[in-house]
Design brief:
The complex is a heterotetramer, with 2 copies of chain A and 2 copies of chain C.
Chain A: H1 3-6, E1 8-9, H2 10-37, H3 43-57, H4 66-80, H5 84-98, E2 105-106, H6 108-126, H7 136-151, H8 156-174, H9 182-185, H10 197-212
Antiparallel strand pairs in A: 1-2
Chain C: H1 11-22, E1 27-29, E2 36-39, E3 49-56, E4 73-79, H2 85-95, E5 101-106, H3 109-124, E6 129-134, H4 155-167, H5 172-184, E7 186-192, E8 212-215, E9 226-229, H6 233-248, E10 255-262, H7 268-284, E11 288-295, E12 305-313, H8 315-322, E13 325-327, E14 330-332
Parallel strand pairs in C: 3-4, 3-5, 5-6, 10-11
Antiparallel strand pairs in C: 1-2, 2-4, 7-8, 7-12, 8-9, 10-12, 13-14
Helix pairs in contact in C: 2-3, 4-5, 6-7
The chains are: A mainly alpha, C alpha/beta.
The structure holds adenosine-5'-diphosphate (2 copies) and magnesium ion (4 copies).
Residues 35, 40, 42-43, 46, 83-85, 88, 122, 126-128, 134-136, 181-184, 196-199 of chain B line the site of one adenosine-5'-diphosphate.
Amino acid sequence: MSQSEHNIDEQTVAHAMKQVSAAFNAQHEYLTGLDQAMGDGDLGITVTKIATALEQYAQTDPAGDLGKWIAGAGMVVNRAASSTMGTLLATALMRAGKEARGLTELTPAVLSAMLVAADVGIQERGKAKPGDKTVVDALHPAAQAFAEAIAAGIGLKEAGQKMLAAAREGRDRVTPLKSSTGRAGWVGERTVGLVDPGCAAMVILLEALVGIT
Amino acid sequence: MSQSEHNIDEQTVAHAMKQVSAAFNAQHEYLTGLDQAMGDGDLGITVTKIATALEQYAQTDPAGDLGKWIAGAGMVVNRAASSTMGTLLATALMRAGKEARGLTELTPAVLSAMLVAADVGIQERGKAKPGDKTVVDALHPAAQAFAEAIAAGIGLKEAGQKMLAAAREGRDRVTPLKSSTGRAGWVGERTVGLVDPGCAAMVILLEALVGIT
Amino acid sequence: MKKILNSPQSFVVEMLDGLLKAHPTMLAYAGDDPHCIVRADAPVQGKVGLATGGGSGHLPVFLGYVGKGMLDGCAVGDVFSSPSAEQMYEVTRRINAGQGVVYIFGNYSGDVMNFDMAAEMADMDAIPVRTVLVKDDVASAPRAEAVRRRGVAGMVFAFKVAGARADRGGTLDEVAETAQKALDNIRSMGVALSPCTVPMAGKPTFSIGEDEMEIGMGIHGEPGVKREKLQTADQVAERMTLAILEDMDPKPGDRLAVMVNGLGATPQEELYIMYRKVHDILAERALSVHRVYVGEFATSMEMAGASLTFFRLDDELADLLDAPAHTPFFTQV
Amino acid sequence: MKKILNSPQSFVVEMLDGLLKAHPTMLAYAGDDPHCIVRADAPVQGKVGLATGGGSGHLPVFLGYVGKGMLDGCAVGDVFSSPSAEQMYEVTRRINAGQGVVYIFGNYSGDVMNFDMAAEMADMDAIPVRTVLVKDDVASAPRAEAVRRRGVAGMVFAFKVAGARADRGGTLDEVAETAQKALDNIRSMGVALSPCTVPMAGKPTFSIGEDEMEIGMGIHGEPGVKREKLQTADQVAERMTLAILEDMDPKPGDRLAVMVNGLGATPQEELYIMYRKVHDILAERALSVHRVYVGEFATSMEMAGASLTFFRLDDELADLLDAPAHTPFFTQV
Ligand SMILES: Nc1ncnc2c1ncn2[C@@H]1O[C@H](COP(=O)(O)OP(=O)(O)O)[C@@H](O)[C@H]1O
Ligand SMILES: Nc1ncnc2c1ncn2[C@@H]1O[C@H](COP(=O)(O)OP(=O)(O)O)[C@@H](O)[C@H]1O
Ligand SMILES: [Mg+2]
Ligand SMILES: [Mg+2]
Ligand SMILES: [Mg+2]
Ligand SMILES: [Mg+2]
């Protein structure tokens, strides 16, 4: 395998965006249901709005700077959907974009740095820590697992599977816990045993990304 | 039969009031239903309030003046229930009372004059004419029939039956018509074939009165 | 029945108790009967008195407009039923400062008969009274039978301009004439999406399908023009606007005050979506909007729906409408 | 879903269009994005700017308090969801008259994160910003975790006193400190009897039994303290009053402003029945009532229910609360 086979080009990034859109559109009712169980119910709307925005944005031209382009997607997402999940995703895209400034292709190492930056960005923005039962509990282990795999020289495909497994495991690990952050924090005891909607959305997103690698 | 056997004394008037109360209490749901069909629905509440007020008032002492006492019942009814039906009934009682001023017993002739005065009073107050499909269409023929019967020397009991027949006939005669007065007037065509709630209430009242003669 | 109350029997009296406890500097009981409410400073010397009355369940109508620049007193009935003639008379007596009293109230037979009786009582006490009936609901009878029309939210405009006229020293006849002139230029129409429940009745006054509305329905649930499928905000606003304009027949260049009134459960967001369309239609027809009132001015408890009122203004009416007012439910600067 | 609207997608933008058409002398768009609204006379020279923002569906909150004596601008989100950081920043930029801008908004994570981002953008443009979070809902977390509490109707009092402080020439820090001091003395609690429906969702946010209520529910349907059988008005009012008093712990002789706020579908009659009981309990405890606000100040569209807010006043806060204000939804003389 040549080096460039492992790299992600502009077209693939645009395709990835469309895949995430499709996945969000397909799963919005499921996410609404999870969010309603937590005393809210707008997450499905949020991901639908993100999907529409990303689908449209994916038609635009990265113009030789994938990093700027991905950060721009973050702005678009924030404009389209500014609920917690939308804002966190926007932050993630902006931070991830920063790691790819000026690039036309993303190497595995860059991808790994982008995912870590997204994780850090979301933690800084939302001030939630692992274990608080938020999207962080899916993303943080995923970013860690992916970074470790890439650092160990594991191929992109397999690293993606490890990342996914870590995300799902993270989501499931916090399901028995009580939500303490955001709206769900007010539901208190009644959240024990319920899947965190943000974790579920993150797993859907990562599944869509891995699906295209 | 002695003359006084045909007369109505204080106790009988008080008893009549209680009978009317009982009848109104028994029939309030039926009247609410009729009034709801006409786009309103408070007539049951109105007659319940009248019933409570009259029942209490019937405990008080006519103090040698049945006329003043009956007019006083009108004031009490107006205070307790000032919807259309309550106000008209209050007017009827006040006008009927006027015809019995200073009396301790009501002769058939006085009773007849009282009923006619009530009819006139209700027409003056409400400005409805026979045929408008209001309480007038039950009361007016009833008052006329009773007056004719008494004038013809027919006994109280039989006169009462004639009155009742006229009231029922009047109620049924206007059922096929369109209401044109009061709230029901706004329902227009949809009132065709519906029993006028005020007529129904008047028949219930007259039935209760006749029941005790 | 899902209401925050203690008992249907005490509903009105406790509501009044709460109102007077909340607004002790503005409102007072006229006497022993809690259903008779007057301005705290009644009678206002040198001023014609203004009284209204009617059933409860319509706040801010009627009581909410008692105060500076509007009404002097109000007789309060049970939910959706008229107060008694005695109560109206008690209010009349307490607000009369020697200049007489103008009655302004909705054209409902119970209210009409009781105010007629109250006027007779006032006459016996040599208190001059004038009566002005509100009949603004164009959906309640065709133009040829306008005398049968019922009074809805448009009465608020009549309270406002008559109150301003009285404040400015209008005589009894002048105040009554101003109220009548205003009402001759006021037209309303409503739409209902859900029923409401009279506490004493315990169940809804009528039923309406999940996807239905009734155009032209009155504020007690009186039937309207037509029961039909729920339409869009623009369609509903357009129908009401056109029906009122047809009845009122204003000329291009005429000035209107506009009221979009919520009947109880309809969010203000929806009222503004309706106003948007009303505004656009009026602009198309070169009718100018002098003042806009969007909110709850005359309700039917928790009924979902709205009404629209237009008030055609000349210079005098515009000036009176613009005058400041301050009551528990209506403050204008 | 039974609402008067044209389409869920256009709900917010059309609502805003209607609002600006109804109040053209008071409100204006900040720029091209209709979600950014400012006072028509913004920026007000020599004055610290006050901004808020949050989801739609709560009128008069948030936008309804933009005007004289209260706020300078508002970023408006979709129903029940935060506006974007860019929108907040756009408002910030337009209302800044060189004295900086104070953000006052409810403690919801979406809003917090976006206002944080907006403040970072403002910082890059050298516009000084202070943030004051509203966390008045005592039912949303125990006292020990008060930082987690959400913001409900009590924010209106914060808008009012901070607005008055800014009007009187307060510096950026002074206005922020006044808002914070007010909020330290503001506590609220709500009760819901029915759900509401987000237009885009099309179905109710939660379900509740015909004879149930939820004490402590938030203004988007966030779960409360307890789901239970519907109680009487006195019981509901007493529970909310006692819960707030316990958390606030005022001393006999303390002065309070009281707000009884309808969540959308609850008739004002019922709010006054509740106020009556609140008033009596406060009187028993020798707490004096400085001002009373009964009506709809912060709603959840067509949700049935109410909230109660107490605001403990010292001389400074009382004076600021009493200052006149004039906005599309709030006029005080
Ligand atoms: N402070 C936070 N930091 C990180 N994630 C959070 C935080 N608060 C909430 N979340 C995540 O956001 C999800 C809900 O997203 P969303 O419905 O958009 O929120 P909201 O409706 O509160 O704006 C939660 O399931 C949780 O995973
Ligand atoms: N102007 C009128 N004159 C006589 N009777 C009337 C008049 N208007 C209505 N009614 C009678 O009153 C009845 C309704 O009574 P009620 O429910 O008390 O009226 P409302 O609810 O309008 O106050 C009608 O069925 C009719 O018989
Ligand atoms: Mg959510
Ligand atoms: Mg009736
Ligand atoms: Mg009635
Ligand atoms: Mg949300």
